[in-house]
Amino acid sequence: MSNIQKNKITVDIFGQLYAIVGTESPSHIRHVASLVDDKMREISSKNPMLDVNKLAVLTAVNAVNDYIKLKEELERLKKELQKDKE
After folding, report:
1. DSSP assignment of 13-62
2. What is the pLDDT of residue 86?
């Protein structure tokens, strides 16, 4: 049996309520939901004719793009640190 505590939090993302279950803290879950909501609202303000499904996909594409850029930067910095240790 697992001792990992799961938190269930209800969040509002773009006017819809979602119950999110995770092992992260409630404040972390709320923060993530807030960032998603902010990004959806930003994209929607630039493209008001998008339906919610397309808006959600574009938000996911933006989030993954940001993630990949950060991951690449992290790898670059790790290599730089490794080079400095040699």
Report:
1. ETTEEEEEEESS-HHHHHHHHHHHHHHHHHHHHH-TT--HHHHHHHHHHH
2. 77
Alpha-carbon distance of 3 to 36, in angstroms, equals 29
Question: The whole model's pTM is what?
Answer: 0.84
H or E element: which one contains 68? helix 52-85
Rounded to a whole number of angstroms, the CA Rg of the chain reads 18
Say if CB 12 and CB 36 are below 8 A apart: no
Per-residue pLDDT band at 24 (split at 50, 70, 90): very high
| Angle, vertex CA 45, rays to CA 39 and CA 48, nearest 5 | 120
Contact assessment for residue 9 and residue 20, using Cβ atoms and an 8 Å cutoff? yes
Contact by Cβ (8 Å): 20, 8: yes
Q: What angle do CA 73, 76, 81 make, to 5 degrees?
A: 125
